[in-house]
């Protein structure tokens, strides 16, 4: 497994495992304490694993947490997603930077998203399972959502949106969220 810095988002990493394939399918390690530690992350900081299942065209996000935020490892364990990270840390050298990834069950790549960054994805296959390893317990009172189609972000979603939660449909613009954060 190798770790590569994501240039568009300071402190973000892409972890790429080495799948071993044969006639049965494949096997790969999706989390390695030593590799995570080698880039300066505390592998024992993660306290919660979650999984979402989506169908083709579903958009989830853009989500982040207020307060101390949350860091997370995101991996598509089955199917394929178009994954989006937006840096919303005002003191970051990559503030308002965006990074896009295609994550899939075939590659099992994982993206590390630092606290203070917004995250979202779109399912590209009929069934998509997305795994999250999160460094804080979920507190719904800290949930923040930004409009997936905010013109300032101009995210190039690859498919028409087939479904999203009411919360995501009604999300405020990036400007509104930033104004609220400052106020």
From TrEMBL:
Family to which the UniProt record says this protein belongs: Belongs to the dTDP-4-dehydrorhamnose 3,5-epimerase family.
Gene Ontology BP terms: dTDP-rhamnose biosynthetic process; polysaccharide biosynthetic process
Active site: 63, 132
GO cellular component: cytosol
PANTHER family attached to this UniProt entry: DTDP-6-DEOXY-D-GLUCOSE-3,5 EPIMERASE, THYMIDINE DIPHOSPHO-4-KETO-RHAMNOSE 3,5-EPIMERASE
A GO molecular-function descriptor: dTDP-4-dehydrorhamnose 3,5-epimerase activity
Name assigned to this protein: dTDP-4-dehydrorhamnose 3,5-epimerase
Skewed-composition ranges (Basic and acidic residues): 166-183
Keywords: Isomerase
Region of interest (Disordered), ranges: 163-183
Organism this protein belongs to: Streptomyces pseudovenezuelae
InterPro entries: RmlC-like, RmlC-like_jellyroll, RmlC_Cupin_sf
Alphabetical list of CDD domains matching this protein: cupin_RmlC (cd00438)
